[in-house]
Amino acid sequence: MIHIVTAENTARYADALEQAWRLRHRVFVEEKGWSDLARPDGREIDGFDDAHALHMLAIEAGTVVGYQRMLPTTRPYLLTEVLSELCEVEPPRSPHVWEWTRYAVERGHRDRGRILSPVGSALLTGIVEWGLESGVDAIVIEMNPLWLLRLVQLHFRVTPLGLPRPIAGEDTVAVSAAFDARTLARLRAVRGDDASVLSARPPRPLRLAS
Amino acid sequence: MLPKLVDHTYDLFRSFDRASTVEDLNACLVRAVARFGVESTFAGVIPLPGIGRSAQAAHVLIDRTPQGWTDRYFRVGHLDRDPTIRRLTTDATPFLWSEIEPLYREDPAARRVMDEAGDFRLRQGFTVPLVTLDGRVAGFSFGAERLDLSPELRGMLHLIASYVFGRSLVLSHVADEGGGRPPVRLTPREREALQWAAAGKSEWEIGTLMAISEHGAEKHLRSVHRKLGAGSRTHAVAEALRRGLIT
Question: Sheet holding B60-64: strands in order across?
Answer without folding.
Answer: B60-64, B40-45, B137-144, B124-131, B95-96
